[in-house]
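Worked Example 4.2. Consider the chain below.
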Amino acid sequence: MKTYLFFLLFFLTKLLFAQTIADFEEYELSSDTFNNGSDGSGGFISGNIFLPNDYSLDFNAWLGWALSSKKDTMTPGFFNQYSCIAGSGNDSSQNYAVAFALEPATLKLVQGPKRVSGLYICNGTYPYLSMRDGDSFSKKFGGPSGNDPDFFIMTVKKFSNGLLSTDSINFYLADFRSDNSDEDYIISDWTYLDLSPLGEADSLQFNLFSSDNGIFGMNTPAYFCIDQIVTEDLSTSLSSTIQDQVKLDLFPNPATTFVQISAEKQLNPVISIYDQTGKMMQTATLIEGRYTLDVQDYLPGLYYVVMENNTKYISAGFIKQ
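Applying the procedure from the previous section yields the following structure tokens:
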């Protein structure tokens, strides 16, 4: 009996602390390329997270998130906006995510609230070289004397139950505030940021602030890179979460011609369907908790259904044969 209880406790402990890592390696990016959402995908799913992308066909411009395998650490300026100054993803991996955060960048959790344990973060080549050397828009950090107390800081907050928390975690992408100039730095390597103190969240919000500002706002290029986002698979408030969890049902699965999508306790939520590359296939609204998805023209493979309702994101997958 004691042996049984020991293994049961061991199993539950492993289950409660299971983790998923979002590393974007499932996206088939060629080496030294990028995906900025110009295909209309609307964002990227990896692990337990969804990174929204807003691409404008009218202006050929994007906001939010892009995926990249760019390696250029030498070329300054806007035309190198997709590169990481580390030259690769974390641990020399190929793919990573780039945020263009003129407005706060949002990372959304799918399958209900989760705790983001942490992630790796690095400067993009564009902002790094801009801060190090200065350019036509931005000053050289430290100024001519090297003594200007410049900084480039990220503030991370969480949304929980649709409300923005007052709790936050700060991370300096560059810091020249010390009286000792030898302590000045601009982040050039992937650095782990512990986000576990924020607790469970529906989404995370990333805000950028700089000491270098002008009449149109921040002069420092509003970019940063992330990789290997670690999430806990089960809620710390396990019993209440399981009791209140909304289930997204897909039938039949695997499917050939159609998939019946249903969700109890939901009032006409919006759903989005994505393929394995993160491309958005279509959106729809569940009427009275149901929708029949025609998949006859879908290529064989794995697809994700992401449901949004009251700032909650729940996902489920199905296979098209």
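The radius of gyration is 22 Å. Residues 118 and 195 are 5 Å apart (CA to CA). Compare this with Example 4.1 before moving on.
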